[in-house]
């Protein structure tokens, strides 16, 4: 008989979007969740689930919050070792810190070491799925997927293609980018919980010929995600204008090569023009907010309120190592602060939704991850709402659940993660 585990606690699930109507009404709190064969088989009252499943192992988490594992919709796992590098803006930051580090990933041993280090760090922070850029090297993709496969994690990643404005050793060509991406896609896409994303880094590091080759590959595999960067910094946008003088705007440098579509995942999207916003909305593309990165590299303030009102599909991400943290809690705190700076603070329910359901929606995976509901894959995080003395004393005088959760969002880190479950298996305790 299949092994059953019943987790008792305050089980938090979303029954709708907290961006439509009163945020708290989008949330249901239940007493228990039943895990069976790597999936959630039931959510509901503890007594009734226990009596219906007397064979289940019961784990009582008391007042801890049990919710979906965090989904980080835009990261660069190869930038793990150079996170928190000082004092540069985007293009100088790439040239000074990022490219020299990414150069090392042709070595499969180094790639495996960092992939495992990254997945250890993210699991300890409660992240169970991420969508990662790799490097130009196929070895970097193999290393990441191999490590994720061993941990039975649902992940998305792809070879980062660049054929100009990058150093020797970190450039491919339109043809090798196409061939290697296709080979990796055919090798990995759909294996266990692994998905391949076609990954041109961004317009400045791809020739029109390479963007065209990526567009052709995507047209042959339209159900794959395509991830890239869009409109992150004003000096980047000026550079794109010089490199593509015929393009109407930054988005057009992708659109004209077949790199705009519903399965497109665009990181940052801070300084969008109205035509770009309209087109992204029309095709129902995914927009990823990377708040700690946007403040750390000095990029700007994402327009969450405006984009949500327009009905965009929005997710949340650390953007490690442009982002300054592996923690999605910290990333939610940063999103809250950016909302404050723009005059529209996000509710705790909205922050938690962005880091779970919202991100899963952007990766087109909300049918299997990002929420606690029967049939979903059992990727769960157990949050201790009193994980440090500072948080505990604030939580102790909270009047309701939301006031109790918010200090953990604002001040929590890996110490707030009491347990992580991946595919129905406990990772840490
Ligand atoms: N734009 C192109 N590459 C990168 C990257 O690695 N990080 C960030 N933040 N922006 C980028
Ligand atoms: Zn990025």
UniProtKB/TrEMBL annotation:
<comment type="similarity">
    <text>Belongs to the metallo-dependent hydrolases superfamily. ATZ/TRZ family.</text>
</comment>
<feature type="domain" description="Aminodeoxyfutalosine deaminase/Imidazolonepropionase-like composite">
    <location>
        <begin position="32"/>
        <end position="56"/>
    </location>
</feature>
<dbReference type="GO" id="GO:0008270">
    <property type="term" value="F:zinc ion binding"/>
</dbReference>
<comment type="function">
    <text>Catalyzes the hydrolytic deamination of guanine, producing xanthine and ammonia.</text>
</comment>
<keyword id="KW-0479">Metal-binding</keyword>
<dbReference type="GO" id="GO:0005829">
    <property type="term" value="C:cytosol"/>
</dbReference>
<dbReference type="InterPro" id="IPR011059">
    <property type="entry name" value="Metal-dep_hydrolase_composite"/>
</dbReference>
<keyword id="KW-0862">Zinc</keyword>
<keyword id="KW-0378">Hydrolase</keyword>
<dbReference type="Pfam" id="PF01979">
    <property type="entry name" value="Amidohydro_1"/>
</dbReference>
<protein>
    <recommendedName>
        <fullName>Guanine deaminase</fullName>
        <ecNumber>3.5.4.3</ecNumber>
    </recommendedName>
</protein>
<dbReference type="GO" id="GO:0008892">
    <property type="term" value="F:guanine deaminase activity"/>
</dbReference>
<dbReference type="InterPro" id="IPR014311">
    <property type="entry name" value="Guanine_deaminase"/>
</dbReference>
<dbReference type="InterPro" id="IPR032466">
    <property type="entry name" value="Metal_Hydrolase"/>
</dbReference>
<dbReference type="InterPro" id="IPR006680">
    <property type="entry name" value="Amidohydro-rel"/>
</dbReference>
<dbReference type="InterPro" id="IPR054418">
    <property type="entry name" value="MQNX/HUTI_composite_N"/>
</dbReference>
<feature type="domain" description="Amidohydrolase-related">
    <location>
        <begin position="65"/>
        <end position="425"/>
    </location>
</feature>
<comment type="pathway">
    <text>Purine metabolism; guanine degradation; xanthine from guanine: step 1/1.</text>
</comment>
<dbReference type="InterPro" id="IPR051607">
    <property type="entry name" value="Metallo-dep_hydrolases"/>
</dbReference>
<dbReference type="Pfam" id="PF22039">
    <property type="entry name" value="HUTI_composite_bact"/>
</dbReference>
<dbReference type="GO" id="GO:0006147">
    <property type="term" value="P:guanine catabolic process"/>
</dbReference>
């Amino acid at each position: 008989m299949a092994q059953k585990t019943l987790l008792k606690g305050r089980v938090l699930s979303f029954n709708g979007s907290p961006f439509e109507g009163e945020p708290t009404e989008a949330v249901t709190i239940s007493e228990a969740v039943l895990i069976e064969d790597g999936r959630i088989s039931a959510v509901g009252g503890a007594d009734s689930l226990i009596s219906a499943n007397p064979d289940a192992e019961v784990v009582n988490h008391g007042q801890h919050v049990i919710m979906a594992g965090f989904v980080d919709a835009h990261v660069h796992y190869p930038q793990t070792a150079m996170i928190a590098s000082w004092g540069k803006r985007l293009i100088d930051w790439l040239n000074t810190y990022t490219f020299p580090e990414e150069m090392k990933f042709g070595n499969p041993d180094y790639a495996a070491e960092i992939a495992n280090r990254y997945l250890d760090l993210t699991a300890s922070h409660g992240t169970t799925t991420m969508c990662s850029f790799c490097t130009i090297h196929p070895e970097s993709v193999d290393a990441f997927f191999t490590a994720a496969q061993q941990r039975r994690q649902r992940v998305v990643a792809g070879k980062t293609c660049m054929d100009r404005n990058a150093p020797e050793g970190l450039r491919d060509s339109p043809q090798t980018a196409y061939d290697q991406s296709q080979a990796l896609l055919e090798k990995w896409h759909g294996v266990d919980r692994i998905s391949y994303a076609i990954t041109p880094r961004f317009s400045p590091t791809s020739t029109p010929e390479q963007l065209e080759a990526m567009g052709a590959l995507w047209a042959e595999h339209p159900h794959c995600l395509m991830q890239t960067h869009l409109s992150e910094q004003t000096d980047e946008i000026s550079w794109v204008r010089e490199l593509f003088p015929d393009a109407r705007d930054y988005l057009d440098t992708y659109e004209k090569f077949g790199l705009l579509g519903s399965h497109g995942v665009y990181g940052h999207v801070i300084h969008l023009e109205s035509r770009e916003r309209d087109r992204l909305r029309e095709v129902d593309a995914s927009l990823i907010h990377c708040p700690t990165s946007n403040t750390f590299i000095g990029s700007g303030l994402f327009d969450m309120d405006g984009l949500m009102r327009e009905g965009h599909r929005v997710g949340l991400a650390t953007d490690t190592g442009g982002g300054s943290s592996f923690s999605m809690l910290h990333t939610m705190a940063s999103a809250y602060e950016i909302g404050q700076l723009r005059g529209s603070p996000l509710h705790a329910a909205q922050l938690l939704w962005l880091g779970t359901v919202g991100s899963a929606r952007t990766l087109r995976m909300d049918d299997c991850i990002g929420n606690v509901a029967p049939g979903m894959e059992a990727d769960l995080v157990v949050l201790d709402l009193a994980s440090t003395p500072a948080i505990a004393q604030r939580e102790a005088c909270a009047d309701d659940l939301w006031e109790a959760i918010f200090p953990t969002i604002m001040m929590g880190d890996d110490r707030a993660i009491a347990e992580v479950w991946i595919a129905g298996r406990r990772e840490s305790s």
